[in-house]
């Protein structure tokens, strides 16, 4: 064989792997966008039982075609304090089952004899999907087109990989070299390293199935390579965990221990099978007997069997696994991290959630509502302190103020990154409104500071507010809190009735502040209050009115999203 032949085979293999990876990414992002509401509903139920967690992990991974994305998402949830380690472990267990669907799809694509092969039929979907993506008007249809195109491209890549493997099968040197690699530990290591490099166990499994199908490797070799791919797939989670908090590190370690533990158990079982006297028994002979004349199915079914058995073995010991991990990464590390001067953080979002944009959007809403709550607390406290100057500790007020500034800065950066992800039109519209909402909440915080400055000015002049003014402030605070409550219901639940309620309260606030301005002018004309304090009180009334406007803007933003 010429050097050109070999180079051509290598380039074809690389092209096939590249197209396969792009196809997986395209399927994952579009499936994720289409199924985001269902995924959100599933993850909301994760706390009900361990078996449910496994099922959710399996279904979610099968839906988005990426165990890595599922694991990284789980790490983000754990890091944000939304999910416990036990819950995270069960989802990771299930993700390993869900990821085997890719191997089953690849095996299915290799059926077909003299008739049109399944690979050709499935590959044609790339053209159908591209046509839909090009000419469809609705966003949902474009996503469906992207799914079909990705599915078809997956088989285009598979076909190219298969062709390159058939070329390698003609090279005696390659066949002899591969045949010489029989040590199970070495094969596991090769599978792990290659998967770590590619960062996709799906690709590694697909390559192994293809090599088996064309006769480059034996079934036993393919089995140990796929087992190694399970270990190599942990690299993504480890990288994600190392750059996050203590519980995120623990989650990554759970993933590594589970995957490695499953491989060790099967290596031991494989060794024991080989010791059965008078019988030539191994995993290869078992699955070769169960699925004769279909080598691709033999390996795909072993891969599914391996992960299902690993889950069955580890699930009863989930709590013990978590305790072991907590011992390996002890609590004092977390304490040290909390003792650092800057302990502020985003509560509901994490950088790793960018791997699952639709779910990240939902968490952004929670983060914004957390900001809204802090801003409202500070403004309510400022109004209370205006009526009772020494009633509330200013240290907490300043801490809330600092936290608001921090959350605004960090969440803005997160939104910029999230906006660049593959989002639906509605989610992109929401992110656009979220930028304005952050500005509104920041302004509420600024007005709270203005009220405190007004309070301090009164104290410095040895003055005091009139009884009428104090009553007016109390009434304004009560009305503002009603407006805030309606705003939260409108924003969180997308409740248009609550929006109309917020609109009515905002109008009442406009009317009330105008009435109080008139009453205050009368007090000034009648020399019933200090002129300096009186002038600042008019500014204060305008600030309260603007705060009401900002909160109504938050409520109103939901109409833009629902448009």
Topology:
Blueprint lengths: L2 H32 L1 H9 L5 H15 L2 H13 L5 H14 L2 H9 L8 H6 L1 H11 L3 H31 L2 H9 L3 H15 L2 H13 L5 H14 L1 H9 L3 H29 L8 H8 L4 H20 L3 H11 L2 H8 L18 H31 L6 H26 L5 H36 L6 H27 L2 H30 L5 H32 L1
How would a crystallographer describe the biggest sheet? Answer: none
**Average residue-wise pLDDT:** 82
- The stretches of 5 or more residues where confidence is low (pLDDT under 50) are 333-342
Integer count of domains: 2
Based on CA atoms alone, the radius of gyration comes out at 31 Å
Beta-strand content estimate: under 5%
Look at the helices and sheets and give the structural class.
mainly alpha
Distance between the termini: 64 Å
Helix content: over 70%
* Total beta strands: 0
Shape summary:
elongated
- What is the H-and-E element order? HHHHHHHHHHHHHHHHHHHHHHHHH
Number of helices: 25
Attribute tags:
about 575 residues, mainly alpha, Methane Monooxygenase Hydroxylase, Chain G, domain 1, 25 helices
Describe this entry's structure for a reader.
The chain has 563 residues and is an all-alpha fold. It has 2 domains: 36-110 and 172-328, no CATH class; 351-562, Methane Monooxygenase Hydroxylase, Chain G, domain 1, CATH 1.20.58.220. Helix content is 81%, strand content 0%. It contains 25 helices and no strands. Helix 8 packs antiparallel against helix 9, helix 15 crosses helix 18 (318-328) and helix 23 runs antiparallel to helix 24. The protein is elongated. Mean pLDDT is 82; it is low at 333-342.
């Amino acid at each position: 064989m010429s050097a050109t032949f070999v180079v051509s085979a290598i380039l074809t293999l690389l092209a096939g792997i590249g197209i396969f990876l792009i196809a997986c990414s395209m399927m994952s992002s579009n499936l994720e966008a289409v199924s985001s509401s269902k995924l959100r509903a599933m993850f909301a139920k994760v706390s009900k039982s361990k078996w449910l967690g496994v099922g959710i992990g399996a279904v979610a991974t099968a839906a988005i075609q990426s165990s890595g994305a599922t694991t990284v998402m789980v790490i983000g949830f754990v890091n944000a304090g939304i999910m416990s380690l036990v819950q995270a472990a069960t989802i990771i267990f299930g993700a390993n089952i869900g990821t085997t669907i890719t191997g089953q799809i690849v095996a299915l694509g290799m059926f077909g004899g003299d008739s049109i092969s399944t690979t050709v039929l499935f590959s044609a979907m790339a053209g159908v999907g591209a046509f839909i993506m090009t000419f469809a008007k609705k966003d949902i249809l474009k996503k469906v087109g992207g799914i079909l195109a990705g599915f078809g491209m997956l088989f285009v890549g598979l076909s190219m990989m298969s062709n390159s493997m058939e070329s390698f099968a003609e090279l005696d040197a390659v066949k002899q070299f591969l045949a010489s690699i029989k040590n199970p530990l070495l094969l596991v290591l090769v599978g792990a390293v290659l998967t770590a490099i590619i960062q996709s166990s799906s690709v590694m499994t697909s390559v192994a199935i293809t090599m088996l199908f064309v006769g480059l490797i034996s079934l036993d070799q393919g089995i140990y390579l796929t087992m190694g791919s399970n270990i190599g797939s942990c690299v993504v989670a480890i990288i994600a965990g190392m750059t996050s908090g203590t519980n995120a590190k623990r989650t990554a370690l759970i993933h590594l221990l589970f995957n490695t533990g499953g491989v060790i158990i099967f290596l031991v079982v494989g060794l024991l099978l080989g010791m059965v006297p008078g019988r030539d028994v191994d995993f290869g002979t078992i699955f070769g007997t169960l699925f004769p004349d279909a080598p691709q199915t033999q390996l795909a079914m072993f891969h599914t069997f391996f992960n299902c058995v690993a889950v069955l073995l580890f699930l009863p010991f989930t709590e013990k696994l978590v305790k072991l991990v907590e011992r390996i990464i002890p609590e004092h590390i977390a304490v040290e991290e909390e003792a650092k001067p800057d302990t502020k953080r985003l509560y509901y979002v994490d950088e790793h959630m960018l791997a699952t944009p639709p779910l990240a959007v939902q968490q952004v809403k929670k983060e914004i509502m957390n900001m809204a709550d802090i801003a409202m607390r500070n403004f309510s406290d400022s109004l209370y302190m205006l009526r009772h100057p020494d009633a509330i500790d200013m240290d907490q007020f300043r801490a809330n103020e600092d936290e608001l500034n921090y959350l605004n800065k960090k969440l803005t950066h997160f939104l910029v990154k999230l906006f660049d992800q593959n989002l639906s039109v509605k989610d992109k519209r929401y992110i656009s409104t979220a930028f304005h909402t952050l500005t509104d909440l920041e302004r509420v915080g600024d007005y709270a500071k203005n009220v405190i400055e007004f309070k301090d000015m009164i104290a410095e002049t040895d003055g005091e507010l009139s009884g009428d003014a104090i009553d007016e402030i109390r009434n304004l605070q009560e009305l503002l809190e009603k407006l805030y409550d309606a705003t939260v219901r409108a924003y969180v639940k997308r409740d248009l009735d609550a929006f109309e309620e917020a609109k009515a309260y905002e109008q009442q606030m406009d009317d009330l502040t105008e009435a109080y301005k008139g009453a205050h002018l009368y007090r000034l004309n009648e020399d019933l209050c200090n002129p300096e304090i009186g002038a600042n009180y008019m500014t204060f009334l305008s600030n309260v009115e603007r705060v009401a406007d900002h909160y109504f803007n938050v409520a109103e933003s939901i109409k833009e999203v629902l448009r």
